[in-house]
Amino acid sequence: MKKAQIVIGLGFGDEGKGITTDFLAQQNPEAVVIRFSGGQQAAHTVMIDDRKHVHSSFASGALRGLPSYFTEHCTIHPVFLLNEREELREKGGNIELHIHPLAKVTTPFDVWQNRTSSKNLEDGTCGKGVGATMKRHESPYKLFAIDLIAPKAMLVEKLKNIAYYYGFLDKDEVEKQLQSFLEAIDAIDWKIDDYHYLNSFDHFIFEGSQGILLDMDHGVFPNVTYASTTSKNAFEVCKYLGIENIEMYYVTRSYTTRHGSGWMSNEKPLNLKNNEEETCIFNEYQKHLRLGDLDYNLLNYALKLDSAYVNSTKKNLIVTCLDQIDKEFKWENLEMKFDAIFGSYSPYSKDFQQLF
After folding, report:
1. d(CA 136, CA 9)
2. Which reaction does it catalyse (predicted)?
3. CA 74 to chain centre
4. Is 247 annotated as a binding residue?
5. Could you give the CA distance from residue 207 to residue 184 in angstroms, rounded to a whole number?
6. Which candidate in 22, 44, 53, 73 is catalytic?
7. Does the annotation mark 100 as catalytic?
8. Tens digit of pLDDT for each residue in 286-339?
9. pLDDT tens per residue across span 174-191
10. Residue 323, annotated ligand binder?
């Protein structure tokens, strides 16, 4: 029987979805890991012995040796993808990546828009062009993964029109911006495959991006992501593949984080320990990683919200970073009932520990 395990963040992102996915990949080496939202803005950190990798354009089972699949709900950027592929290859990871034909392609002009728009900078951006890409796809100026293997003249014409869409009128500047982008496209052996590719697998690990509280339909607008960060997209794929055995892995840190601007409850400085390997550090676009006490009301809200999108046979709660704070996680404050509850990883320890 086919089985799916869906990993979802309950907060504003940075909960520990990458290490949870890696944990499941270790248990199920025959699986494929599917990204069903977001794209190159992800920063999912996995550490295996002395190897550390931040997964963005590959799913978080790659360092463990599993193949990656990006659905049509994801974005890709060829230059970022090529750079990460080389890093992953050097670390002995699996660089096999299959991409749905209708995944959206981020161009240099989308990245420029994300990094220079005052509204984007005010509302919050990772500076990787994802939001601009999703917004552009509401217009006629679309670019899909399938276009990367189209005749070169057609691809270049589409790219030039996207440049003009953003106001790049200088042809020499457009050519300059496209040079490394086109070189990256040529350097990659693209595997553009629809869902039929997945029929050869019986086990599927779905890796979410960001968190439910940033969902474009349910987060506090305008500081949201252009993606469905609930189980919505993953469950749709499960229905398409005929998967009924679905197990949920809901992930939260033992405290609240938010990288970037926007509403956040219980925000206050925290004295953390054992967090020397924190991936989410200051950058010029998202600014600081903000911290606060865990809000159990928000946690319950996110859990109940996601249950509207997915029918699962089993639910698990993953709590990470328990070793970074002195406060105890209060399991009794959760209204949802779980078939199993797992505890932490310090993002930098090797294993999960069962709490019972």
Report:
1. 26
2. IMP + L-aspartate + GTP = N(6)-(1,2-dicarboxyethyl)-AMP + GDP + phosphate + 2 H(+)
3. 9
4. no
5. 26
6. 44
7. no
8. 667 899 999 999 999 999 999 999 988 889 999 998 888 888 888 888 877 665
9. 999 899 999 999 999 999
10. yes
CA distance 247 to 68: 19
Return the closest-CA partner of residue 126 out of 268, 289, 299, 291: 289
Alpha helix stretches (DSSP H) within the chain: 17-27, 78-90, 108-116, 118-123, 130-136, 152-165, 171-187, 232-241, 296-306
Alpha-carbon span 206 to 250, nearest angstrom: 12
The beta strands (E) that lie in the chain are given as 3-9, 32-35, 44-48, 51-55, 68-70, 75-76, 97-99, 104-105, 203-207, 245-253, 256-259, 289-292, 314-320, 340-342
Q: What is the DSSP letter of 179?
A: H
For tokens 């990256």, name the residue.
Answer: 184
Concerning whether 14 is annotated as a catalytic residue, the answer is yes
Known binder of ligand: residue 19?
A: yes
Is residue 343 a known part of a binding site? no
Residue whose structure tokens are 């270790």: 26
Cis peptide leading into residue 140 (ω within 30°):
no
**Count of residues in the chain:** 356
Which domains are present in the chain? 3-101+192-342 (3.40.440.10), 106-187 (1.10.300)
Of the candidates 342, 334, 337, 339, the residue with the CA atom closest to the CA atom of residue 314? 339
The verdict on whether residue 148 carries a ligand-binding annotation is no
Q: Is the dihedral of CA 6, 9, 14, 16 positive or negative?
A: negative
Q: Check whether 322 is labelled as a binding-site residue.
A: yes
Q: Which of 14, 22, 110, 306 is catalytic?
A: 14
User: 3-class DSSP state for residue 20?
Assistant: helix
pTM for the model stands at: 0.92
